[in-house]
Design goal:
Shape: globular
Largest sheet: 7 strands, mixed
Strand content: 25-35%
Radius of gyration: 24 Å
Number of strands: 21
Number of helices: 11
Distance between the termini: 63 Å
């Protein structure tokens, strides 16, 4: 038997790892990473690969099931790349997320206190944005592969299988976004197949239909953006007209031609086919316009909880100057503006800054300013001289964290308070390690934005050392 292949019987699943994997540990102390295990399961495992410090394996038999295991709601669970914790009760999910942050921060900060995670009231239908991929050659189930049917429709639209960029699961019913999201996706698919439109093939780089984005707001406004790989004006208008007639609730219908390697639309020209260029969201009686390229938190109810947390930690008295780094649509800036003297946001995406300025005018907020550009180039001593020394810095960077030059400027400023919002505790920890040169952590508050996943938002309050 190969050294890479081992069998382990009656092994307990001990913990949750990253990317939906679970961690088992044999009686000899050997660590094995498997899929679809829940802590407390007793399982038999057959490994298939040896890593430096652990094995990768598959569960071959469940000897007994964990008390925290539940039946997944979604029929695509285990195949689709999303919602990998759906087989575990929600309260246990949030406990593991707290443990994840605690374990991450213990690497550098000892005896750190972490407040109980702010849980999500809605376990399903909480997202306001989903992106689906069209495929000419969808993932087939074993039942379909073994079927005696001569012709199986292989065109589909759905989510990629985790770790397999060219494999897409055809989704029948997704529990992440409220209807008519499912109806819109299925209608596009049915119309395209009935009219023999080509679906994208990621290997041959051919096909008309490439990507579908559906966005919605708490006001029940829907935006649909279809990404086409090939330019066929007649077919494009045909499918867009079909949606326009079938779904009057769509407020904004847009499309983009994208024949480059990746499906990112941020450098593409997006065309308005019907309705408005934006949809509107309301947070604390403030209106925000969401455009196709706008970054906006995908769980609106938890976003409000997140912003309330930031406002509480800021504890503004009304005479403070606040810098909002990576400000996006200016939502945090405007949310806290009534309690501050002045808020200045910096954001690299031009369209987001324009939207932030428009919404500030619409919301009649006159003590916020926004500047566009790469933060590491804008956030300098010249910027500070122009706007004044900040009393508080709020930073909400992307998953990669803050640029080293931004951290250097923060340390140079010696601002009294920093609130660091992050969707990636690992890069947040890396940045905090540098900031501890002059700052002490005063509070850590996790917020669960994405039930059934290992993702967690984390808010950290830092105070300058005396």
């Amino acid at each position: 038997m190969s050294k890479k292949i081992k069998t382990f019987n009656s092994v307990e699943i001990m913990d949750i790892g990253s990317k939906g994997q679970s961690i088992a540990k044999s009686s000899e102390g050997i660590v094995i990473m498997v899929k679809n295990g829940v802590p407390g399961d007793i399982v038999d495992i057959k490994t298939y690969r040896k890593k430096k410090n652990y094995f990768l394996g598959n569960i071959t038999k469940y000897q007994s099931y964990s008390k925290i295991r539940v039946e997944p709601k979604c029929e695509h669970f285990g195949t689709c790349g999303g919602c990998k914790w759906q087989n575990m009760i929600y309260d246990s999910q949030t406990q593991f997320k707290e443990n994840k942050i605690r374990h991450t921060f213990k690497k550098i900060f000892n005896n750190i206190k972490i407040d109980p995670i702010i849980k999500c009231k809605e376990e399903y239908y909480y997202r306001n944005k989903l992106e689906f991929s069209f495929t000419e050659n969808r993932w087939l189930t074993n039942k379909e592969i073994n079927s005696k049917e001569k012709e199986i429709e292989k065109r589909g639209i759905g989510f990629h299988i985790s770790g397999m960029w060219d494999k897409v699961v055809d989704i029948k019913n997704c529990h992440l976004q409220s209807d008519p999201s499912n109806k819109i996706r299925l209608s596009v698919k049915e119309y395209a197949i009935n009219n023999d439109f080509s679906f994208y093939n990621s290997r041959s780089k051919k096909g008309l239909l490439r990507n579908l984005i559906i966005r919605n707001t708490s006001l029940n406004e829907f935006m649909v953006i279809i990404q086409f790989f090939e330019k066929n004006t007649e077919k494009i208008k045909s499918i867009l007209n079909h949606l326009k007639i079938s779904f009057p609730e769509i407020k904004s219908m847009q499309y983009v031609i994208n024949n480059k390697e990746n499906d990112s639309i941020y450098d593409r020209d997006i065309k308005l086919f019907y309705g408005e260029k934006f949809i509107t969201e309301i947070i604390d009686k403030l209106n925000f316009k969401i455009y196709p390229k706008s970054f906006f938190q995908t769980n609106i109810n938890q976003t409000i909880e997140l912003y309330k947390t930031v406002k509480k930690l800021a504890n503004l008295k009304g005479n403070e100057i606040v810098y909002d780094l990576y400000s996006g649509l200016g939502t945090i800036s405007q949310f806290i503006s009534k309690k501050a003297k002045k808020v200045i946001g910096i954001e690299s995406i031009k369209e987001a800054v324009q939207s932030a300025k428009e919404s500030a005018i619409e919301n009649k907020i006159n003590n916020v300013e926004f500047e566009v550009g790469d933060i590491k180039n804008i956030f300098t001593s010249k910027f500070v001289k122009k706007h004044g020394d900040p009393d508080l810095i709020i930073t909400d960077p992307p998953r990669d964290g803050m640029h080293k030059d931004v951290i250097k400027e923060i340390l140079k400023l010696e601002t009294n308070l920093i609130i660091y919002v992050s969707c990636n505790p690992s890069t947040q920890l890396r940045d905090l390690e540098k900031l501890q040169e002059k700052y002490t952590i005063k509070k850590i508050q996790p917020v669960d934005m994405f039930p059934h996943t290992d993702h967690v938002e984390n808010v950290v309050l830092l105070k300058i050392n005396n």
